[in-house]
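Sat 14:20. Reprocessing the chain from the morning session after the first attempt stalled halfway. Input below, unchanged.
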Amino acid sequence: MEEEKEKLYSIGEVSKLMNISIKALRYYDKIGLFKPAYVDPNSNYRYYNDFQLYRLDLIKSLSYIGTPLNQIKEVEELNNDDYVSFLIHQEQVVKEKIDYLYEIQQIISSVRRDIQRQEAPFNEVVVLEKEEIKIIQKKVHGLGPKNTFNSSFSSFRKYGPSTEGFRKKGYGSTFPIQPYESIDDIHYQYLFTPLLSKKNIMPLERDTELAVLPKGKYLSIISHSTTFDDYFQSLQKLIHYIQTSEVNVKSDIYEFFSINYQSDEHKYINEFRVLIEE
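Finished this time. Tokens:
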């Protein structure tokens, strides 16, 4: 009985059988990861045998779970125990990616809801449910509405991504609730910026700390201010509401600064929030 001749597959046949591009197969050959069983010396065509198709399955699987190409050859040579350890590590890597993506999903959802809630009328006190917001805050002295500028927040930028880019409420301040007689009486206790993530944050500077704005029910008023008088009148309206209504406040005033980009002229929008008891 004549021995069956080994079947060889052209690079095009392997590409179709294994659903992998010819370009990828050529690259695998170039880096020594998956070389053909035979190369025709006359045509330089690559040919692969049946056994190699099983190996290519493994390469594709390892690549699919995110194993770098330069590590796949090492993984192929692992014994069973080491291979299990490798898979345990890959499980942890995937879990961390899932956790990261879930965090980003929650941030996007929170930002989207926050922007939708901006449909509330200007200069009217409303009650809103707000999600928890992670922030970096810095204790400040001698700053208030009239002398706080974009540059006042420059130290926050080094700490990584904030929600400034797409929340349109990238910065804020905290100051006490009290009967102010003029805007000059307002002195900020903290400046802050909402965070995208607390992961991989650089060491914080002196007087700077991580904090949260709690989830809960807030009194809110949005001011589309063009003058400091407009700004102060909106704030006074909120304070007057607190003084004359039967509400118990649980926080200082959180002020958010945002910019309206939808016109040629940039207009600033301020929102004042106060956490109240349910």
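The longest helix spans residues 80-117.
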